[in-house]
Amino acid sequence: MIISSPRKLLEKILYVSRFKSLYILGAGASYKYIPISYGLLHDAKELLLDSIQGISVSPPRLLSEMEEARFEISGHVLHKDYRGNILIDETDRDIHDIFIRQNPEILELCGLLNYSLNKLPEKCPEYQFFNKVNLHSVFLNLNHDSLCENFVKNRKIITLHGTVSSELKNLIQNNIFCILDDAFGHSAIRYIIPKNLHVATKESEHILSQRNEYRELKNELVKNKFPYIVIIGYSFFKKNGSEIHDTYTYDLIRSYLIEHKECEVIIIDPEPNFVADMLSKTLSVSKISLYQMKWDCFVNAFFDVVKNKNLPYFKFSEFELRLFNLLYNHYKYLG
């Protein structure tokens, strides 16, 4: 059953915040700052058109396993010909498609620019909220914008797909012409992109299992019995109605839930059905709670109520609960 009452979610979060829990944060947690976008291939072509002229392509070359993984971009169907070469499924394929096919790191560069911030905000309630939950909680951050790392204090944060600082983004933007021009030599971009960055591509267990972040995640899952897993704005990188790209992350969480049937999954999302259906189809999980909410509206209403409130923060009167409900609807109406 989907719950759409802001008050019900607040009451649930206030209770869950008392326990050491696992929070999984996706693009929906940062939506106010970075709108969700799936047209990365289109954006990469626009970047080439705006930045360099006189593109030429070299003879076809086979991609490595790493490059193939980097080239599987969400929203674009890729297939192989009888020789095993990756082809782009677009009827209007042009020289830019071929160039990107030969230089998949350009897609990573475009993703880096799309999913990072030029400047950090002075405050960020979407993440500062977590400073009020149990000190020993663990956070899996799937975003690249560094908001979680800068605004969540003194908590265990595992940034699974890497993060991009504002300084790095500005450096790249200020030198984009030189960087892309040097791309003909296949050198500059590979040195600029952080080694642990995994942006907008289908996960590969072979690649990610060797990274420290996933070793750290596996260690946390082994040693902890989380009573709650709270999934906020994350759908394991949904590609379409039935397919996901974050397959390795999903398998790790799925395995944990199989071993810990008492763990309750709480999904907070404007459209929570997808993750719930996916989990319920593959697991005998009965403890799944669905809250159809916008996270930014929820936290803004929360901080409006508590700004003049004496401690404890997580104890609300009936009047405050009603006020919170009104404020949530106010922010939702504002969009």
Layout of strands and helices, then pairs:
Elements: E1 2-3, H1 6-16, E2 22-25, H2 40-51, H3 65-71, E3 78-80, E4 86-88, H4 95-102, H5 105-114, H6 125-128, E5 138-141, H7 147-151, E6 156-159, H8 166-174, H9 176-182, H10 188-192, H11 205-208, H12 212-223, E7 228-232, H13 247-259, E8 264-269, H14 273-282, E9 288-292, H15 295-306, H16 318-334
Parallel strand pairs: 1-9, 2-5, 2-7, 5-6, 7-8, 8-9
Antiparallel strand pairs: 3-4
Helix pairs in contact: 2-5, 15-16
**What is the average of the pLDDT values?**
84
Gap between N and C termini: 25 Å
Radius of gyration: 21 Å
Total of domains: 2
* Helix coverage percent: 40-55%
Q: Give the overall silhouette.
A: globular
Strand order of the largest sheet: 1-9-8-7-2-5-6
Q: Which class of the largest domain in CATH terms?
A: Alpha Beta
Catalogue the unreliable spans. 73-77
Number of DSSP helices? 16
At the fourth CATH level, what is the homologous superfamily of the largest domain? TPP-binding domain
> Looking at CATH, which topology of the largest domain would you report?
Rossmann fold
